[in-house]
Structure formats: structure tokens, C-alpha cells
Prior knowledge:
By secondary structure, the chain is mainly alpha-helical. It has a domain at 29-81. It has helices at 11-28, 30-50, 53-61, 68-86, 91-101, 117-125. It is elongated.
Amino acid sequence: MFPAASAPPRPWLRHAQRGTVLLLCLALGLQWALLQGIAWTGMFISFAREGSVIEAVEKTFDGQHACELCKKVKKGTQDSNNSSSSTQEDDATKGLHAVLVSPTVLIPPAEEILSFAPLCEVLISRKGMPEPPPPRRGQV
């Protein structure tokens, strides 16, 4: 009868969502992880051309054969860490830091002791054959 009402297209909403995701990634520092992955891939490919795959993996991740991009990523992450540590931390960050750094004490449960003894008793008592089903009507 009536045509289904559909929401008008909102192309700006899609751009806003993508922009929000991009800003979140930059705030988390994921650009350095992306650049480091690109650097490792390039290093692996170049080292694999020179030798075996195992040697390429070892040279890529040993830290002694860093490429220029790896050095720039390391410097960039250190710079971003230094700038963020120089600013004052808010109370939530201090609280989280205190929780993560403080020693953890594990306290066992006071009265409950978990045991599989009741399960074993049930299994031991059920090791016999099951009872035959009752006779059906009409069959003698």
C-alpha cells in the first residue's frame, strides 16, 4: 500500500565514522605499528633474497640489522612516549598505573574446596549395565 520509508542517504556520516576511526588509531599510536610492519616486511624480503628463509627471519627480528625505517620508527615511538610522559597524568591513569604496578596477592577461597569426588562416585556406581526397558504392550 504505502512505500517503505527509508532513511535519506547520509554520505557525511560515513566520512565522519572513518575520520573518527582514523583519529582513534592515531591517538593509540597505531601508525608506528603499521610502519614497523612495513619495515619488517621489506627487511624480510631483502634478507630472503640473500639467504635462506630462516636466516631472513633471524636477521629481521634480531635488532642488529635494523633498516632506516626501523630506526625512524624507534625514534618516533620514543619521541611520542617522551612527550606523553612529560605531560601531567590524570587521576585515572595514575590509578591504573598503581593497580598494574602493585604486587598482586592471590587469596584462596575460604571454605569452598572444589573436588571431583562426587563425580567419581557417580561414575563408579554406574559401571554396571543399564536396566532393560519395560515390556511393550502387544509383545509377549
